[in-house]
Structure to design on (155 residues):
C-alpha cells in the first residue's frame, strides 16, 4: 500500500496541481501516491489553470491530466499526509478534521523551508505568468526537502 499525500489549495487549479506534479516527480511511484484537492468546489473535474500546466511543462512535468477535486473530511482517512498552501486553506481543512489525531496530518507546505514562520504560497490566479513561475520555484524547493524526508521515512 503506497503512502498517500494530498496537496490542498483553494480551487485546485493553480498551486496544488503544481505541488502534486512536482512532488510526484521526485518520489518512487511504487511507494507513494500524490494527489491534490481544493477547499472550494468550483473547479471539480476541470483541468488545472493553463498557466500552471504551462509552468509545469517548462520543467518537464505534465499535469494536464489532473482533474479538480473537492477536499472533504473523507480525505483524512484516505491520506497519510495533507499539505496546504496557505493559512486560509489550513483553517478550512482543520475545520473538517474529525479528531485531533487527524489534525496532526495537516501542515503548511512551506513549513519545510521556513519552520514555524507560517509562510503562505501566494495564490497566482489573479496575477501574471511570472507569479506561477515564482510559485513553482517555491514548491520545487519545498518538495525537495519533503521528498527527502518521505523517502528516508518510508522507502
Amino acid at each position: 500500500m503506497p503512502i498517500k499525500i494530498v496537496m490542498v489549495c483553494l480551487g485546485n487549479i493553480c498551486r496544488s496541481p503544481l505541488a502534486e506534479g512536482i512532488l510526484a516527480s521526485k518520489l518512487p511511484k511504487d511507494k507513494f501516491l500524490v494527489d491534490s484537492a481544493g477547499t472550494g468546489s468550483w473547479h471539480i473535474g476541470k483541468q488545472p489553470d493553463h498557466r500552471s500546466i504551462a509552468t509545469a511543462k517548462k520543467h518537464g512535468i505534465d499535469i494536464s491530466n489532473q482533474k479538480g477535486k473537492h477536499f472533504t473530511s473523507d480525505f483524512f482517512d484516505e491520506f497519510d499526509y495533507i499539505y496546504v498552501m496557505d493559512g486560509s486553506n489550513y483553517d478550512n481543512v482543520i475545520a473538517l478534521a474529525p479528531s485531533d489525531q487527524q489534525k496532526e496530518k495537516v501542515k503548511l507546505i512551506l513549513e519545510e523551508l521556513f519552520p514555524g514562520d507560517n509562510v503562505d504560497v501566494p495564490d497566482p490566479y489573479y496575477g501574471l505568468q511570472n507569479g506561477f513561475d515564482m510559485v513553482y520555484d517555491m514548491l520545487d524547493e519545498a518538495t525537495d526537502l519533503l521528498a527527502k524526508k518521505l523517502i528516508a521515512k518510508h522507502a
